[in-house]
Amino acid sequence: MSSTTDLPSLESLEFLLYINDVGELPTALQSQVGIYAIFNADKSLQFVGYSRDIYLSLKQHLVRQPDDCYWVKATTIDRPNRTFLESVRSAWIEENGKIPIGNGAASPQWLDPIPTNYAMTAAESDSFDDLDGVAQIKLLKQVARRVEETILAKLQQRGVSTEIRFNPKLKEQGLLDLK
């Protein structure tokens, strides 16, 4: 655990497996405030973020970007301090030499709920505007469930055993996000 006067370098931290041999994310980071860096399978930095619960944030990123979450580095602090965490994030990005894709162009894919309207079939898309409100919601939920199944299948292939539950209310809007 770091004090808010230390600025740990990214290089000084050890890589942790994003998903361990029993399919769990790093449980030591549950309910921990701090900063984390996510790396792909080649250990190339993809995203740097901070959170009041690093574990929940890692879970969310895994659902949103399952192909890019293989390794993580993290440091925790005793109390939330946004200024300190933003300073560490900036230092880690500078240390990396370039802005990670998840902090740049692809930021919405790392941070925002997953839109599912892209998965509508041509027929669903064509008929959507002609449906009444209730039928539109029903269709959005169907499409969201299809995308959810695809995500869960991908996570199962990765060996994830951690419980993943999506917010049912957001499915009505054609969005997926963890509950």
β-strand amount: 15-25%
**Which structural class do the helices and strands define?**
alpha+beta
Instruction: Please state the CA-atom Rg, rounded to the nearest Å.
Output: 18 Å
Q: Assign an overall shape.
A: elongated
Classified in CATH, the superfamily of the largest domain is: GIY-YIG endonuclease
General description of the model:
There is one protein chain. The protein has 179 residues and is α+β, with helices and mostly antiparallel strands. It folds into two domains: 16-111, GIY-YIG endonuclease; 114-176, no CATH class. Helix content is 37%, strand content 15%. It is built from six helices and six strands; from the N terminus they run βββαβααβαααβ. The chain has helices at 54-64, 82-96, 107-111, 122-128, 133-157, 168-171, and strands at residues 16-17, 33-39, 45-51, 71-77, 114-115, 175-176. A hairpin with a 5-residue loop joins strand 2 (33-39) and strand 3 (45-51). It starts with 15 loop residues before the first strand and ends with a strand. The mean pLDDT is 94.
Topology:
Layout: E1 16-17, E2 33-39, E3 45-51, H1 54-64, E4 71-77, H2 82-96, H3 107-111, E5 114-115, H4 122-128, H5 133-157, H6 168-171, E6 175-176
Antiparallel strand pairs: 1-4, 2-3, 2-4, 5-6
